[in-house]
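<backbone_tokenisation>
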Amino acid sequence: MPNVPQALLVHLRRAHDLVDRHYADPLDLDALAASARVSKYHFVRCFSATYGKTPALYLAERRIERAQDLLRATNLTVTEVCLLVGYSSLGSFSAKFSHLVGRSPSSYQAKYAERGAPRIPGCFVFMHGLSDRLASSAISEKPTRPGAA
């Protein structure tokens, strides 16, 4: 295990925070290493030594944790949750979910649906930004034509 320089810790934390904030966005090793201002190979070694897991595993765990929240609390479909947390393949999402949680996403969702607790309608998740998507991705107001009052 390499000894991680103290000065690098703040940069590793920046990459860690990037994953926490933008887990649903396409993040790759190059982008994370760039945010830490080191080469991707050095980044993987130092991130793993500091946090005890690779950046890819940390990203996957963050996505699956958010998926668990959505599956427990909303009436979204497994496919909608898959896409909301940053996966583009339902098969990859289901395999990773099953590996980390120990049951399939649909089985996990059914377990919490049996309890009969009220669930947040999916339309609220999408309308009110509970899906963690950027609100700035939508046009906030109708553009005006130059010269129009």
Summary: DSSP finds eight helices and no strands in the chain. The two ends are 65 Å apart (CA to CA). The first helix runs from residue 6 to 22.
